[in-house]
């Protein structure tokens, strides 16, 4: 698909954010100046993530932007560069279709403002953030990754995204572009344990995180603004602490989703409006 075709695809999708369903048609004459055009119909709910997956796959189509490549980069870094071989640094990804379904639930069931900031703590090759930004018009997308070579892979994926010129139109305003900010860093070193700017949605694939690392994620999450959504993979944030007091975090739903390595539970959680 050409860059213009992808931009059209995404603008058309964004123009109907509340449409219950959409299906992809490659032969509609609807939009001009691109090799691919779209028609939106109301066939079934499940086709909307399929539309997004088509856009995602057209950007991250080469073998170097795959999750397998990221896993290899991570393994090489741990083996060759002699990083501490802690379980926390193990690699696996949530698949883009799972991200799309989760984002649909956040938007359609709970509601999500336009714009906003999405984070991924332990962002790997960044694919979660790119998927999240196809599903919603965030203004800023931030990833924090400890392994430098994975961080560099995320920067290369950012170039792939920018080469495709994905645009998200503001309602009645000019076309806007989401900014990607990838940091090479350690979650445990986040000073003040608060993220800035504050997240609207925070992903954390904590499956292999050890207790100390997970405790940092817990503190960071408790410091987020009321209403912040958390997408926690395998390990949910605690809703009560060790003395039985509420943490201000509630669980909205939990379901099984596909990862690169199998199925696991994904917990959709939220910082409560009041500490009751
Ligand atoms: C299971 S992978 C998840 C990748 C991606 N977020 C996803 O869900 O598809 C977890 C990532 O967290 C990173 N990580 C582990 N400990 C970290 C730390 N202390 N600071 C930053 N990143 C860390 C690992 O290197 C790995 O890339
Ligand atoms: C991608 O494919 C090329 C050519 O087939 C190959 O040389 C390269 O090693 C592959 N890279 C990865 C990360 O699999
Ligand atoms: C448990 O939560 C309460 C209320 O927020 C707090 O005062 C207390 O320090 C917490 N205890 C522990 C062990 O985290």
Automatic annotation (TrEMBL):
UniProt catalytic activity: L-lysyl(79)-[histone H3] + 3 S-adenosyl-L-methionine = N(6),N(6),N(6)-trimethyl-L-lysyl(79)-[histone H3] + 3 S-adenosyl-L-homocysteine + 3 H(+)
Q: In the record, which residues are listed under signal peptide?
A: 1-22
GO MF term list: histone H3K79 trimethyltransferase activity
Entry-linked InterPro entries: DOT1_dom (IPR025789), H3-K79_meTrfase (IPR030445), SAM-dependent_MTases_sf (IPR029063)
Domain DOT1 residues, every copy: 90-243
| The protein's Enzyme Commission number | 2.1.1.360
Q: Does the keyword NADP apply?
A: no
Key word Signal present: yes
Query: In its UniProt record, which GO terms are filed under biological process?
Result: regulation of cell cycle
Q: Give the Gene3D superfamilies listed for this entry.
A: Vaccinia Virus protein VP39
| Keywords from the UniProt entry | Chromatin regulator, Signal
Q: Which PANTHER family match?
A: ACTIVATED IN BLOCKED UNFOLDED PROTEIN RESPONSE, HISTONE H3 METHYLTRANSFERASE
Instruction: State the name under which the record lists this protein.
Output: Histone-lysine N-methyltransferase, H3 lysine-79 specific
Its taxonomic placement starts with:
Eukaryota, Sar, Stramenopiles, Ochrophyta, Bolidophyceae
